[in-house]
Amino acid sequence: MQNSTAVIRALSSAIVGLALFAASPAMAQVFTGDTTGSPTLERPFENGSNPPFSVSDGDYPYDVLAFTVTVSGSYSLLLESSDFDTFLGLYSGSFDPSAPLVNALIYNDDGGAGTNSLINYSLNTGTSYFAVVTGFGTDDFGPYTLTIRGPGSAVAGVPEPSTWAMMLIGFGAIGVAMRRRRMSRPQQLA
Fold first, then answer.
1. pLDDT higher than 90, residue 7
2. How many angstroms separate the CA atoms of 111 and 77, rounded?
């Protein structure tokens, strides 16, 4: 009788734990930056939920955040600033400011209420994404907050393949050095 009570309690605890896990809110990561004095680009125009197909005529200060996600699903990117009218872009694979339409998925002006920008988009693991923070006008720049919310984490900093290769070579060299050091030590007898 005691064993069955313990089993029922364990199962109840597991069910409650799973229910809490399933009901947990989306994860959110907050990134901050400042576009004051940043490089400029010809900013693409917003095109609803479609990729942009034309660019502006001015030079708009911008900042870019490279990131990946840990879980595929629907994510929201909210760009907020009290200093300027925001404009947010999302790219997949790579971002080149000299070719601002290439790899552009979407741009948003004021979808986040007021002067804030909001993009809701389905993101996949294993893909590099680039959030491009800029302003509505060429004189719109300053400090900002970018919140990425979704079923998983947004991990900033997407290393280039050459960086991964150098890291692997470095780890290999450390491993070889440690092995040689261990092998060169004389064996001590107890």
1. no
2. 11
Residues 6+ apart with CB under 8 A from 71: 125, 150, 151, 152, 153
pLDDT of residue 18: 38
* CATH of residue 119: 2.60.120.380
78 backbone φψ class: left, alpha, beta (φ>0; ψ -120 to 50) = beta
Q: Where are the beta strands (DSSP E) in the chain?
A: 27-34, 40-41, 60-69, 73-80, 86-92, 104-108, 117-123, 129-135, 143-150, 154-156
* Cα-only R_g, the chain: 24
Is residue 17, in this structure, part of any structural domain at all? no
Please spell the DSSP secondary structure of 28-48, one letter per residue.
EEEEEEE-TT--EE-PBPPBT
The single residue listed with the structure tokens 């719109």 is: 140
Residue 172 scores a pLDDT above 70:
no
Question: Is residue 146 over pLDDT 80?
Answer: yes
Q: Which residues face 90 on adjacent strands?
A: 106, 131
